[in-house]
Amino acid sequence: MAINMEDARMLLSEARAELMSKPNVVATGLGYKISAGKRTDELALICSVEFKRTKQMLSAGELIPAGIQNVATDVLPTGLIYALQEPTEKFRPAPGGVSIGHYLITAGTLGCYVTKNNKKYILSNNHVLANSNDGQIGDAIYQPGPHDGGTSTDQIATLNKFIHIQFEGGDNGGGSSCSIGNFTAAVLNTLAALTGSKTRLQAVLKPKTAENLVDCALAEPLDKNDVLDEIFKIGKIAGVTEATLNMNVKKSGRTTGLTTGSITQIDVTSRVSYGTNKTALFVDQLMAGAMSAGGDSGSVILTDDNKLIGLLFAGSSNTTIFNRIQNVFSALEVVL
User: Fold this and answer.
1) Structural domain contains residue 232
2) DSSP state of 137
3) In Å, what is the CA distance from 88 to each residue of 25, 46, 64, 126, 145?
């Protein structure tokens, strides 16, 4: 029996933690199953992997099941998913879709202009405008970005706000802050001592992996005349709308320019690499196919009729991942 969209989304939310724990899985999402290289009309829980492994290489517990309840699964080899930061001309006024970056990075993409308290701000990624949490409010933002020749004479804005990225593997301490656990351990250790046992227990709080919704930041232009409220090669944004599965989308970015695609997965959970020993878990993301490359981070994702749906921030050789624009606007407290 075919499952409806809402039931499939509910099942994914219940199963994603177990699926993400499988070795080699870098993302999970809801999409349509691929059979013989063609998209079918069957909804499936999609597991993206760095590379496909044979069943002989995996234990029974490591295998992705063929289905969960009455929903099929599918395995999509994407390679490692990474934050699209790569290192052209100077634009004044500067539209969305052109090179920009914090003065200490290479280059990313200026997304678009948003409004907060009747003031216009530049929207892009944290890792483009705030150097992956290392930036300070007031830091210089260059257009074009440093890799494209931007220097202090090309400063267009200052860093105004960024949403902190929670990276995996942070220091969570070795003990527990749970008073019940600590008390229980103390009682059991006392009893062990009375019976002559040298075994001792310690309550340990298992750290929960921090989840991220967005990779986003704002920069305040130095001069309002230096910005152009439209997207390079696309034009003006016509509003905001909700993203849906199989929706046609487009973007204009610093590296690959104007590209198109379609949403292949929704409700995506993905680990994203930000370089050596820096990985972050993102939830409630959207995925499209190969429509971006390094340096396109910060591009906004639009529908055919120029409605804004997302903020591009990561991808692999054959995938593009972006934040839901509603989550971005909520986190930064901005509107178009």
Assistant:
1) yes
2) T
3) 35, 36, 43, 20, 8
State whether 29 and 96 are in the same domain.
no
The CA-to-CA distance between both ends of the chain, in Å, stands at 42
At 76, the amino acid letter reads L
Structural domain of residue 132, as residue ranges? 82-166+211-332
Residue 199 reports pLDDT greater than 80: no
Reduced to 3 states (helix: H, G, I; strand: E, B; else coil), residue 225 is: helix
Q: What is the DSSP letter of 165?
A: P
In sequence order, the 6+-apart residues with CB closer than 8 A to the CB of 303 are 241, 247, 248, 249, 250, 309
pLDDT of residue 203: 44
CA distance 336 to 114: 5
48 sits in which H/E element = strand 38-49
Count the domains in the chain: 2
Q: Whole-angstrom Cα distance, residue 302 to residue 76? A: 24
- pLDDT, one tens digit per residue, over 74-116 is 999 888 787 765 448 899 999 999 999 999 999 999 999 999 9
**Span 138-185, pLDDT tens digits:** 999 999 999 999 999 999 999 999 999 999 986 333 334 445 545 555
CB 249 within 8 A of CB 262: yes
Residue pointed to by tokens 């790569």: 86
Is residue 32 located within the same domain as residue 158? no
Distance CA 254, CA 312 (A): 12
* CA proximity to 26, closest of 79, 85, 84: 79
What is the C-alpha to C-alpha distance for residues 278 and 169, in angstroms, rounded to an integer? 8
For residue 219, what are the contacts with CB-CB under 8 A and spacing of at least 6?
100, 121, 122, 124, 129, 141, 156, 157, 158, 159, 160
pLDDT (tens digit, 9 = 90+) per residue, 211-244?
A: 999 999 999 999 999 999 999 988 899 999 999 9
Domain of residue 162, CATH code: 2.40.10.10
| Assigned domain for 323 exists | yes
